[in-house]
Fold this sequence. Notes:
Four Helix Bundle (Hemerythrin (Met), subunit A), two-stranded antiparallel ribbon, mainly alpha, 7 helices
Amino acid sequence: MKFLKGTAIATTLALSVGAFSTPVNAVCLGMACMYNKMTPLQAIMATELTVDEVLNLVHENADKVVVLTAIKSTLRATKEINANDKVDRNRMRANLSMKAARKAVKDDDYVGAKEHLLLAKERYAGLEHMLELSQKDRTSQQTHFLNRILGTIDEGAGKRTSNKK
């Protein structure tokens, strides 16, 4: 009876741990798992809306703590923008503008903060156009190793697309 009781408890514990684990919340396609709740385009649009809210707070000369909290939540929301390396680099540049706005608010420079926020909004809006790689970018990112694995011949693989020498 002790063995049966211990086995029942162990089985129940194993099933409950497996049922509520993190991978249940993830959407996995092959080896890639996404924990995001929205697409990159939706995340960009949501970020633009939060920047607008921060701009309204700065325009109304709201309390410093409220503005700083709104900037912090905006910076957290940008982590949902996860598309490709090019978008991520430019997202980080836009985040630098948000951080500069945060510094300006801490120094009570609401005019400078507004300028930085407008620049950040412009940079976040520019991310929408970067979501799809151009064909030249795709060609330059292919490697001869991949072509060898796939058994294909691609003359443009690995070549630079710029005119710089």
